[in-house]
User: Fold this.
Amino acid sequence: MEGLVSIITPTYNCGRFIAETIDSALKQSYTNWEMIIVDDCSTDNTKEVVEEYMKKDNRIKYYILEQNSGAAVSRTRAMELANGKYIAFLDSDDIWTEDKLQKQIDFMEENGYVFTCTAYEQIDEEGKSLNKVIKTKKKTNYNGVLLDCPVGNSTVMYNVEKLGKFKVPNIRKRNDDALWLQILKKEEYIYGMEDVLMRYRIRENSISSNKLQLVKYHWKLYRDIEHLSVPRSVFHICYWGLIKVLKIK
Assistant:
């Protein structure tokens, strides 16, 4: 069996969904994993749900932040606690296919890749397919992710032994894109698998579903995190807007 996989799962008020997420980890054909769930001070029943799973499987580990700090802080804390050769990201409302870990590790080992992602499909809040598959690209570099990120957070896996650990830039949204950009300053490409190995839940009224609100997070990413010039930042905002808001691509 290959090395330990540390599954990174930040959560906040996902008691309604997190059981399905944990179940998708428990059903993995690849069994050498630990699941590190870091709770950003949920006020719902997340703690009770997770604790029931912890009683049944000691691979599931649960930590609560001292104060509500955002997904970036939760994700960074989980990465700090990780012990694995690989880190794989799984948000607390998403679902993996049963062969996700095994297929992705095989893909990485057979090709010598250290940073990878996969295609995924969208589902609604009830878990029903929206009949939309988000494809990835065979390989993407820093500029490619900056221009039009093809990476689904819960599809990503990277080799910690080769790349080390990273601190997730502390912005409320788009912090996953910011993390990929950090990694791509160290590793030239993220390689994509065509296989659909994750189901991404579209939730009503989430910040990520409100494209107009996302503009300010993109601006913060470009200017404050990546330190792009104002003209270049404006270009990226406009390009993103054309693709995501007007859906011309």
